[in-house]
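Hi V.,

You were right to ask for the full record rather than a summary. Here it is.
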Amino acid sequence: MSPTPSEESIEQEISQQNVKRVSCTTVLTLAYQSLGVVYGDLSTSPLYVYKTTFSGKSSLHGNDEEIYGVLSFIFWTFTLIALFKYIFIVMSAADNGEGGTFALYSLLCRHARLSILPNQQAIDQKLSAYAMERSADTRQSFVMKSVFEKHPKFRQGLLIFVLLGTCMAIGDGILTPAISVLSAVSGVQLKITELHENHVVLISCVILVVLFSLQHYGTHRVAFMFAPIVTAWLLCISGIGIYNILRWNPHIFCALSPTYMLKFLKSTGIEGWISLGGVVLSITGVEMMFADLGHFSALSIKIAFTVLVYPSLILAYMGEAAYLSRHHEDLQRSFYKAIPEAVFWPVFIVATFAAVVASQAAISATFSIISQCCALNCFPRVKIVHTSQKISGQIYIPEVNWMLMCLCLAVTIGLRDTNMMGHAYGLAVTTVMLVTTCLMAMVMIIVWKLQIFTAVAFLVFFGSMELLYISASFCKVPEGGWIPLALSLIFLTVMYVWNYGTLQKHQFDAENKVSMNRILRLGPSLGMVRVPGIGLIYTNLVTGVPAVFGHFVTNLPAFHQVLVFVCVKSVQVPYVCEKERFLISRVGRKEHSMFRCIVRYGYKNLQQENYDFENTLVSELVQFVEKEKESGLGPITEESSREFGNLDIEALGASEQTFNDPSHEENSVQSSHDIQVMKSGDEQLENSLPNEESLQILKARESGLAYILGHSHAKAKKSSSIVKQVAIDFVYAFLSRNCRGPDVVLNVPHTSLLEVGMIYYV
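Predicted structure:
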């Protein structure tokens, strides 16, 4: 019985379709839909950019030269970073149609062996999503690869750097709802002057609570409204911008000259430099353009940005600057003041809805980031709920959702000021962009094989701009900038300690696995009573027999008729299709009835609660046994594996069967659902009948399956440093006790679960 298609296959198909040529109508449709998902955060920036920029001492001046200078900075920052860097360059570095920090890191891991995932295999490189252009290394790419491959500390440093950008992106997901909703709601004070600030904060908190409370329903139920809302918002602010330009200052176009940036810095000095921390808020959300690439196509996102988003936002900023040039007294409330009286309330309502859309996009992106971190062993296990069976990436994480809500409410109530939120927001945004710039420079050298001069020019040009804004944002640390730093430090500690503890656990398992020679000496029954049924032993190892098996049989010398060592692992690709998910191997000789099943997922794949794993696994085992019979070689023992080594299986007429390197203990066969053996006459009849071992597996399936999981506890050695003892004995132990258990993540039936307790010292 073939398994029911799960969401992973749909995700894979969508991801593959995104990178193919599509019709003009499809591209335009995707471009329209991307407005609601990708550009919500970016399009709401005009609500608070000028207000935050002029929140310092420079607001005491507010003359035309300063306003022109700020507009010039906004225009060139938006043009160079958002348009040239992200749209024209970074968008080209997609990983099988996926974007974001992890996509760049994944590309580098595959091309330069930077992966920190411990159980990777050479056969993983045969995955269709793993395809790489095998171009010759340049001298620069070879040197850079060698440096990272020879120095593990450099790989760890790169991991920490990537995690820092990831933590700042999570901080973005906390700050975006707070600043967007509070900025939108605060505009009502212009019409209802008696409304106290506490009431504005209360209304904002109510909206945030409702927003987070509705997350478990999934965004697909209201997503159809997102694109019209953002489209209406962009048309509103661009129309108001044109109105303000024509009415207040038609010569505002002169401010686009870069000379006004120099005049601004010259006249304002240090205060002008510090105020650049507000200017950078104009490009908040550009990272989301790249991160959400997998939901659409690169072409559709580029069209939406260049045709509507870019001109609308530029007109909005120019119109607001034109209004400010004639109303210096309105620097702290310029956006709503610049709205014509006749359309104020409609624009206010659209602004509130647009802020909710921006918040939703940031929350959904945070869920996606956490899910990817879990897949790469960089975040404790959490419950991931799939809210849509059709839309890729629509997930809900309860623990993270309520954590985000509490932090958003704390920021909103604690700061109560969009200026201070803007200072925190700017530091988080610029840090993520700098991480992307550095990773892109490495991609240019290692993946694209460009000359080092090109990569250095890219790094220096864009990196210097981002460092300028980071330095300005750092000056605002006492005024709110400390928030993303504190949050990032907490998340970074959690991620790194969890990753370190997980790697140490895998190292312990690898060093203490049961010797294959010992298994072979035990005879066909392995020295135990073999009871009917199939025993599934979950392990992190892709080779050898795990120590949990030896620990189990030592205390209970009986086991199931068929043993399967199951390893669920992630690989450095975004998706693994179902046809390539299972990798079946035989452990030991045929009479042992021991197998290994490696289940491979991409870092954006999602495990399904309704996935028929048991029947699929049995089907894969039967296919493996049948194909082993068809190969004509019979059962392959460890000794014959060493004799055969790597064989040309196509010459044997079984193109799906592959054998590992002679140093390996197992012989691997990659299974497929599409294999059909077409023969005629007696030969067809003979091969259509299942062999004895297949019947044995099916009979064992009828007797039932048992799941055996190791319940291990980490302890730091007494000789370890104090830092390591605190990290392992307290932080990692606390996270292990309070995160989701592996049985929950793997959807193991509790009625069939056996746990084996172990303690390992690191």
